[in-house]
Design a protein that fits this description.
The structure holds 2 protein chains of 2 kinds. Chain A is mainly α. Chain A has one domain. Chain A contains 11 helices and no strands. The relative contact order of chain A is 0.14. Chain B is of the alpha/beta class. Chain B is 36% helix and 29% strand. Chain B contains 11 helices and 14 strands. In chain B, the strands form 3 sheets. A 6-stranded mixed sheet of chain B has the order 6-7-8-3-9-10, with helices on both faces. In chain B, a hairpin with a 2-residue loop joins strand 4 and strand 5. The longest helix of chain B is centred in the middle third of the chain and has 15 residues. Chain B starts with a strand and ends in a 7-residue tail after the last helix. Classes of the chains: A mainly alpha, B alpha/beta. At the A-B interface, helix 1 and helix 4 of A face helix 2 and helix 3 of B. Bound molecules: adenosine-5'-triphosphate (ATP) and magnesium ion. Magnesium ion binds next to helix 1 of chain B.
């Protein structure tokens, strides 16, 4: 556990001293701010954040991989992985530590958006339910998105490849539901179930369903597990 | 301390190390000498548990590097050839991080950092960002992290490459001092360097060990001693004295390999003793299974090594 902490802490410090991370945070605030304002300038403004949540999940398809791409790819590029992997650390400790650092940074980014709901409360009477559940959904979605980025960063020493592939996977998983064309049958049900969008909808509407929570946590666990295996097999190459 | 048996490593189809076997005793300073591409780095990466061998077994302090990798890694300090460091971290911050990864307590880390900064003479730079240090000072940080946790075994891959002559001398002295307490394996392609620091030298060429000796004996080979390797079917206790009695022979060593009885015979260059040796073996009723010259290739390899230093 101390190792996880040490790895995470080191990476967090690097995030907070890295211009790249600040650029990511800035873009996130700009884009989500835009979607928030779109909500308000509606001819019949409803005091809700659903547009903001939609914008946040979309922009994270690009920004989450941008946060994680460095984490393991750079170690492989610079060779520092040689000292990391010859230290008495377990592979899962490295992966989990790196992952937690990106999660902390992304949570901090999400924390910066709390002034949107505050504004709603100052100027109107929003329904608090969808706001709470929406934030819960956003956090779960972010956790899953980052785990995908960790996997691709483990698989390559090229940060650009790690970024592009992770964004691609996220994009596919996000819009998988569209691919079914609303059809019936096992296949379309499966694709709908894999799709992230369909699992996010309920959170936006103010419904907290355990099914969706389990979904996002499983996706996260699955990709972290693959990352650990990928790091292990790195020793075998 | 370290036992390497039948180590073979392939990178894809490319054979990098072939059937290498050797041992390192506790407190020994072993030098790995070989030209570029010989397989030094590959062997060291396997010993330190960075990657598993394609075939063969390596144990360190009786722990298998593949099966009990974590135990092995606890006992090793490693300086990779490229000295990979986190360039955005300051020296002490980096050492603290590496100490934590090695499972040291924070108080212990604090004390040891003071020690290693002293030992590696990093005093004026302990707050500097590593990326701003010169090559020589990065090398020192690399050594500092390797000795930080007082490992039983130190593995140093070309520790003096790319630093200026004065720092080379200091680094060698430092390694010599470290060798008094720790088991050290270091690689180099500079013959005088290895002779200076190491108590035993292993010469590796194209992935095979071609010679293994003390620096003194290697120097003899350089001055024109040839070697023959023979395999004899007969009891070693009787074969040895007979071989030693052959006129012109300087030295005979018995090197059994698996179930083969191999002997290395040294003699002054210029004589051809093959006839006498084979006759003395056969006349005792033993069988001569193979006889080959190994001295020739050794000479070639020395030509490829850096045998002197330009200062
Ligand atoms: N990652 C790799 N992938 C493929 N081949 C490799 C790799 N690393 C080393 N090799 C090959 O394996 C052989 C042994 O390389 P190694 O790095 O062990 O040699 P070395 O003795 O350390 O050489 P040097 O003195 O140049 O450092 C070389 O022929 C090299 O080309
Ligand atoms: Mg090398």
């Amino acid at each position: 556990m101390r190792t996880v902490q040490a790895v995470a802490w080191k990476e967090i410090q690097i995030y907070f001293s890295n211009p790249m991370a600040y650029i990511v945070a800035l873009i996130f605030l700009a884009v989500t701010g835009f979607f928030f304002v779109v909500d308000l300038t509606d001819p019949f403004p409803e005091a809700s954040l659903s547009n903001f949540f939609f914008g946040a999940t979309i922009v994270l398809i690009l920004l989450a991989p941008a946060l994680t791409m460095r984490l393991l790819a750079e170690e492989q590029k610079l060779g520092t992985i040689e000292l990391l992997l010859t230290s008495p650390v377990r592979d899962w400790e490295v992966i989990v530590g790196k992952y937690l650092s990106s999660l902390v940074f992304l949570l901090a980014m999400i924390g910066l958006t709390f002034y949107y709901p505050l504004l709603l409360w100052v100027f109107g009477r929003p329904d608090p339910g969808p706001i709470y559940s929406g934030y819960l959904g956003l956090v779960l979605y972010s956790a899953a998105a980052l785990s995908i980025g960790i996997l691709t960063s483990t698989l390559t020493s090229n940060q650009i490849i790690a970024f592009v592939v992770a964004s691609g996977i996220l994009l596919l998983m996000y819009f998988a539901t569209l691919g079914t064309g609303g059809g019936e049958g096992i296949w379309s049900t499966l694709v709908t179930e894999i799709g992230m969008r369909s699992h996010f909808d309920d959170f936006e509407r103010g419904v907290i369903d355990t099914k969706h929570i389990v979904y996002f946590l499983s996706v996260t666990a699955f990709f972290l597990f693959l990352s650990i295996r990928a790091l292990e097999s790195r020793r075998w190459r | 301390m370290i036992q390497v048996r039948g180590l073979t490593h392939y990178y894809g189809p490319h054979l990098a190390v072939q059937d290498v076997s050797f041992g390192v005793k506790k407190g020994e300073v072993l030098g790995f000498l070989g030209p570029n591409g010989a397989g030094k780095t590959t062997t060291m990466r396997i010993i330190t548990g960075f990657m598993p061998p394609t075939r063969g077994q390596v144990t360190l302090a009786d722990f298998d590097v593949v099966e009990q990798s974590l135990e092995v890694r606890r006992r090793v300090g490693y300086l990779p050839e490229t000295v990979p460091l986190y360039t955005e971290m300051p020296v002490t911050g980096y050492l603290k991080y590496m100490g934590t990864l090695r499972g040291m307590k924070s108080k212990q880390i604090k004390n040891r950092i003071r020690d290693v900064i002293d030992i590696c003479q990093l005093g004026d730079y302990h707050k500097t960002i590593i990326g701003k240090l010169s090559k020589g000072f990065r090398q020192r940080v690399g050594i500092a992290q390797a000795i930080l946790h007082e490992p039983e075994v130190l593995v140093l891959d070309e520790p003096t490459i790319g630093i200026d002559p004065i720092q080379v001398v200091e680094t060698r002295k430092l390694i010599q001092d470290l060798g008094k307490q720790q088991t050290v394996v270091l690689s180099s392609h500079i013959l005088p360097e290895v002779s200076m620091i190491c108590s035993r030298v292993l010469i590796i060429h194209q992935g095979r060990i071609v010679a293994e000796d003390t620096p003194q004996n290697l120097a003899l080979s350089l001055q024109g001693v040839e070697q023959l390797q023979v395999e004899v079917g007969g009891p070693p206790a009787e074969v040895l004295p007979v071989l030693r009695r052959v006129p012109g022979v300087n030295e005979v060593t018995h090197r059994p390999q698996q179930n083969r009885e191999l002997y290395t015979i040294r003699f002054q260059r210029g004589k051809d003793l093959r006839d006498e040796i084979s006759r003395s073996i056969v006349s005792n009723g033993w069988s001569l299974l193979s006889l080959q010259a190994v001295g020739m290739s050794l000479e070639d390899i020395f030509l490829r090594l850096t045998t002197h230093e330009e200062l």
